[in-house]
Structures are given as structure tokens and as C-alpha cells.
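User: Hey, my collaborator sent me this sequence without any context and asked if I could get a structure. I don't really work with proteins. Can you help?
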Amino acid sequence: MTRCTSFTLVIAIWSTSTIAAEPGQPVDARRPNETATLGELPAHARLLEPPAALVEPLKKGRFTIAKHPPAMRFARLPNQRGLPDNDTWLYSHWGDAVSASDGNFYVAFGDHQAVPGHAWICRLNPLSGKIDIVVDVNKMLKPSKGKYSPGKIHAPLIDAGDGYLYFMPYRGSEKYADTPFGFSGGHLMRYHMETSLTQDLGIPLPHCSVPHIVFDPAVGQLYLFGRSCPSMPEPRHNKFGVYDVVRQRLIHIAPDLCAPEEAPRAAIVGGDGRVWYGTESHVMAVYDPRSNSTSLTNTPVIADVRTNRSTKQVETQYYLRTASGPNGAGMAFCLTWAAHFHAFNTNTGTFQPLGVRSFLNEVSQGKSLYTGTVEWGPGRQKLYYVPGSHGGTHVHGTSLVQFDPATRKHKVLAFLQDYVREKTNFPLGGTYGLAFNKDYSQLCILWNDERIGNAPERERRVGVMLVAIPQSEH
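Assistant: No problem. I've predicted the 3D structure and written it out in C-alpha cell form, which is a compact way to encode the shape of the chain:
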């Protein structure tokens, strides 16, 4: 790790009273009548046919294509029959999926609203293909009319290895995350996978909503990255917090030093328990569980040079958008907002540019659709991702891509868009949710759909897919 600067962030050890209340009683928050079932999409040669725009880049060797197409199963998530109320903008998902220790996948989605907002967690049984809503957040919070309730779950769902799934609902419209609407901070909750009961653990970061969480199983700690909300008294600032899942309390809090609009959406946990994240000071901060302290390092945050849409000025943006966990050598792999790949050495705390951008940017330099999540494959040798998390995946046929950090080459495992749209009438837009099961036989992908042509924004929905990647293609 690089030498830390003499500047050390303010540390506060918070007791359980810091959380708005003692953990609440477990509640059955299921919606038992809301279910769906995956439908079969057999493997087909069409999945390996590139769209016309990619034929020339393929001839030039900018990427390769798998030899064997995957089989898939697909369904729209339940409880999306109509619009819950007149203010609903869209159904959407914004957080990572998880392959849990009970053998099921779990995914989250919401209606993007705040007064009222609605958010849910679904359990997907890969054997039966059945999808159930196991958490209705509003059954936990019981918001009164005209008061805030979260319309998203933005942070990843976390299986902490104690039988619980931890999660934090996220604000919908930011203007409603304010005191007049009853907002005082995002709640940390946990779902018990055996009993299907959900428990509210309170508000760990007051006046913040949390868009990102990482977990270190070695020390049993959740790392929470909070974005300040209008209810916070001035001066507002984002917060970084450490929550001990055994003691059920926050044990450390510090300003994360990112600008309010740039709360971290990615962080890197090393094998020794340290966690790194980017700061407004354009250097990485590191939390060390041995000293329970956060400090700044000398490592610059990886940067992009891009044109500001509003001012048309060329700017340098310091932003870590996506990060994997480390492999056996301690190397994590990261993407900037403009999709440049970097390696991060968790032993030394330093970045190494790889000189490679995401698959989409390699074949079309005019595009800069970012990637919101990457997932390791078998043995943590290769990474899997879908470029264009926030939409626009149709421009590259909605490619499921494998990236080999050793060779720095991309391989497309399937062009999903045309085949899936023809079979399901669901236009795949982008994903923030990828999760392999333990034997890597199934990859769960959570999808937002996409406005293509004249499709109205308010009719957007969320779907989920299980992809059986042939073993020969790993």
C-alpha cells in the first residue's frame, strides 16, 4: 500500500443509539400472491450472429465470438401488471443480484418513486424457475400518506453468511428525502432466508441514502457509502460507515470526501480486510479494520477525460464506477465511467492502466456506455459483464461479454437482443445485476427494459434471466 498522508479523517465510534432505534421485531413482509415462473429459451445459433454494425470490427479482430450459444430462461418479475399510482415513472432495478447460500438467487426492483415509493426483493429458485416476492419494503416501514418511502434498492444485496440477506432501500426522487416528508435516513434491513422474516435494523447513517455497500466476510463488516440528502443540516456531506453484523451496530463513521453528486458506486475490499474507495480529493481513501480508522493515501483515483454535456468543456473526471473483488494474487479489476479497464493491486494499493476499454468502446469509439457491474467466472480468471448498464445495449446487440485480464481480449458469449426480444417481446436495456451460482452453471442477469422506437417511458418493466454458459466457453 502507498504511504498514507498525515491527514486522517475524523473517526467516531457510534453506539447502538446512533441507529435511529433498536432493531425491530422480525416481520413477514412477503407478497405471497405475487409470483412468476421462468420460461425456456433454448440455445440457438442466432445468438452468435453479430449485428451489422459489428461485422467489420469482428473482421479486424477487435473481439471474438463463442463457438457454442447458451441456453436461457427468462421472465418478467412479478407485481408489474400496472402502474401503482399516477406519479410512477418506471419500474426499474439499480443494484447487484446475489447467489445466496440457500441455493437461490435474490434480486431487487422498485418503482423509482418516493411519495409514495415502492421497492421489493424477489427470490428466484433456479431449480423450479419460480420467482416470489419475499420482501415488500413498505410492509416494513408502513409509511403514512404523503410521507417518504423508498422506490429503489440501489446497493447490492449482501449474503453475510449468517443466514441473513442484508440490504438498504434507496431514495427515489431526491427532493422528497427531506424532513417535511418524514425522511431521516436510509434503513438497514435484513431478510432471514430460512424463516422468510425481515427485520429493520434502523438508520446507520443519519440523513443519508446508501447507493453502495460492500462486505468483507473475513471480519464480518458491511461498508456503507452514504449520499447526503436534503434533510441533512448544512454543511451537507456524504458519509462512509462500517457496520458490524455480529454486534449489530455501527462501529465507525467518516466523511467520504466525495462531492454530493459523486457518492462512491464502487469500492475494493482486499484480502486483509482493508477497503479502498475514491474521494473528492482525487486520491483513494482506505479503511483499516485493525485500527478501525480511515485515512487518505497517495494513490490517485483513476481518471477519464470527457466533454461536459452542459458546458461543452473538456474535463477530467475522477471516478471509480465498477470494481471486482481481488483474485488470488490480490488484483481487482476496475472500470471508469468511460469504461477504461484498470488493475488495482490490493497489496500495494496502486492502480495499473490496462490500455483497454470495454467491449463496446473497443468496437465503436463513438460510444461510451458505462458498465455498472462485473462478475468473476471460475477460478477468478475471467470477468463477465454487459456494457451499457443504463441502456443503449441494442447498439451492440446486447452482448454478454467475457474479458480475460491476462490477454486483455474480449469474447462475446451471446448477442441477446434480437433473439430475446422476438421470443419474449422484452427489449433488453441494461443491467446492474449479475451473479453466478457456486458451480458457475447459471449466470443470473437482472434487466431493465428499454425504450426502442416510440415505447413510452412509463411502460418500462424489469426482467430476469438465467444463462447456462457452456462449460467449454468459460
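In plain terms: The longest strand covers residues 208-216. You can pass these C-alpha cells on to your collaborator as they are.
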